[in-house]
Specification:
Length: 397
């Protein structure tokens, strides 16, 4: 076992733009984040590019990159990663699609994306809906699989591997009916339309149900990743409520670490994630700890919720992890956000994001650093052009 312990702390979507409501500050600058600020002042602070040029600003690409895998070489699509987390092994001729349960608004002037998460539908409500989709639309070459909340999966033998991907969270409040009229992909859009009467029947029995359609995106075949141990010589695990993150871990040979009460939203079990990370570092070399809440809050357009999510991440995850790492004789902590999810646009953008890298031996505070934020990171002049290089630096320097 490696004597040094490694942990990456990812606050999903924390990056943002200066806001008038915050007197020209970003949420990271305005929030109370003493734990993150401590890491930034004691360690190495800078900006890192998590989204390569020409690639979609997705959490799949960004987190694969942060974990040490160049997305230009290893990324094949989002849905195959989620399939791995759900225990679904894709054959060579199968294509996986992310299947969101969404709320569409059918208006005289078009079909609009009202809610990409169907009101953050609960798993107990979602599962019967996915089972109904399978009964009515499933075939020998096409199966629907229930996931978590609004995030589900379609596996399609000989399906369109490179179908255009329209992440529903990118289209909140926008007209999407035109996207369902692409004549090059009639089978895909036909499935979406065929789901509507199934939801209509379900809503007749449950008037409060917000889901009224599926949305298919993020297609791809299974990637071929070398294991994390092959790449870095380390054992490790992944802590996340999101199938996508767990799926990257599965392909990388990292242990999926289940935390009861981890929801992927603001009510997630922050303390349980921090405790599990520290406990598992007793027998593993590396932990990748991911918190989705800031991203979900930003997608909703709520500044109040995003600030709360950032402060909860700091107080309930970052600070106890920082204190608990002192139990180990040597460690390195990487604090990072995977991408911006600005309140003003409510979707992901591809700017370079702040990172802070702390070793146990780093004890002198840099009084010139104001804290962990976009502006403070830019002011250091330290810029890394590809996030996978940070993992190399953590382990090999």
């Amino acid at each position: 076992m490696n004597p040094r312990k490694y942990i990456i702390l990812v606050g999903d979507g924390m990056g943002d733009y200066p806001l008038q409501e915050l007197q020209g500050r970003t949420p990271l600058e305005a929030a109370e984040t003493p734990g993150m600020d401590e890491i930034a002042r004691r360690g190495r602070l800078g900006l890192v590019q998590t989204i390569p040029q020409g690639m979609e600003a997705g959490s799949d690409i960004a987190n694969l990159n942060i974990m040490g895998y160049d997305p230009g070489r290893f990324h094949t699509g989002r849905a195959p990663l989620e399939a791995a987390s759900m225990g679904i092994r894709l054959s060579r001729d199968e294509v996986a699609f992310r299947c969101n349960l969404v709320t569409l608004d059918f208006r005289p002037d078009g079909v609009f994306m009202e809610d990409y998460s169907a009101g953050h539908i609960g798993a107990d409500t979602a599962r019967p809906l996915v089972e109904s989709l399978q009964r009515h639309l499933g075939r020998d070459d096409m199966r629907f699989h229930a996931g978590v909340s609004y995030r589900h999966l379609l596996v399609w033998k000989h399906g369109p591997e490179h179908a255009p991907s329209f992440p529903p969270h990118d289209f909140t409040g926008r007209e999407v009916g035109s996207l369902l009229n692409d004549s090059t992909l009639p089978g895909l859009h036909e499935l979406v339309r065929k789901s509507w009467p199934i939801f209509e029947t379900a809503r007749a029995g449950d008037p409060g149900l917000r889901a009224n359609s599926i949305w298919l995106w993020g297609s791809g075949k299974a990637p071929d990743l070398p294991s994390f141990q092959q790449r870095f010589g380390l054992t490790g695990g992944v802590i996340s409520a999101v199938d996508l993150l767990k799926g990257i871990g599965v392909y990388a040979g990292l242990a999926p670490i289940h935390v009861p009460g981890a929801t992927g939203y603001l009510d997630t079990n922050y303390e349980g994630k921090a405790r599990s990370a520290l406990d598992r570092l007793a027998d593993l070399d590396f932990i990748y700890l991911h918190v989705e809440a800031p991203d979900e809050a930003a997608h909703s357009g709520s500044l109040e919720l995003k600030m709360r999510a950032i402060e909860d991440f700091d107080r309930r995850v970052v600070t106890p992890v920082l204190e608990g790492m002192d139990a180990f004789p040597d460690y390195r902590i990487l604090l990072v956000t995977d991408h911006y999810t600005p309140i003003s646009v409510r979707t992901h953008t591809r700017e370079a994001v702040p990172f802070a890298l702390l070793s146990r031996s780093d004890s002198v505070r840099d009084t010139k650093v104001s804290g962990f934020s976009e502006r403070a990171a830019e002011e250091t002049g330290d810029r890394v052009d590809a996030a996978w290089k940070l993992m190399d630096w953590m382990v090999r320097s």
